[in-house]
Design a protein that fits this description.
Length: 151
C-alpha cells in the first residue's frame, strides 16, 4: 500500500564543489559555502571540514529533522534531543570503506510520553531518507537513550 505524503513526491537538491588548488575545496550549497579539505593523515592540510564529518553531520541532521517532523505530527512533548555519530572507516587492501556507523543520542520527553517518544524514535530511524538509502551498504547501530522528565 502506498502511503500518501503531505510533502512533494519528488525533490531535487544540488551542490557544487570547486578545488582550492591545494588539498581541498569549497562546496556551494544554495546561499552557503563550506570549506572542506583532506585530513592531514591522508596528506592534506586539514584546513577545512573532512568529508567524513560532513557525511556524519548530514545523516544526523536528516534523522534530527525526520524525528522533529514526526514529533510535531504526534504532539510529543519534547524537552531535549541530542545526537552524535561516529564512522569507522577501514582499509581493506584495495581502498577505504565505511564499515560501521554508530549513532548515539539522548531524547528527553515528558514523563507521561515515554511510549510515544519511543515510537517517534523508531519512526525517525525507519523514515530518515539518508539512512533508508544507505542501510543496505553501511551498517548502522543506534544507541539512542530515552528518558522522561516531569514538566
Amino acid at each position: 500500500m502506498k502511503i500518501k505524503t503531505k510533502y512533494p513526491e519528488k525533490m531535487e537538491y544540488i551542490a557544487h564543489t570547486e578545488w582550492d588548488g591545494k588539498t581541498g575545496g569549497t562546496a556551494k550549497l544554495r546561499d552557503t559555502e563550506l570549506i572542506f579539505d583532506t585530513p592531514e593523515v591522508y596528506g592534506g592540510r586539514g584546513q577545512g571540514l573532512c568529508p567524513y564529518r560532513l557525511f556524519i553531520a548530514g545523516v544526523l541532521g536528516c534523522i534530527n529533522n525526520t524525528f522533529l517532523d514526526i514529533q510535531r505530527m504526534s504532539n510529543l512533548d519534547l524537552i531535549s534531543f541530542k545526537l552524535s555519530g561516529k564512522l569507522i572507516v577501514q582499509f581493506d587492501g584495495e581502498g577505504y570503506s565505511i564499515t560501521k556507523f554508530l549513532i548515539t543520542g539522548e531524547v528527553v520527553v515528558a514523563e507521561d510520553d515515554l511510549f510515544l517518544g519511543e515510537r517517534c524514535i523508531e519512526q525517525a530511524k525507519k523514515y530518515c531518507p539518508l539512512t533508508r538509502s544507505t542501510k543496505d551498504c553501511i551498517p548502522i547501530i543506534y544507541e539512542i537513550e530515552l528518558t522522561g522528565e516531569e514538566r
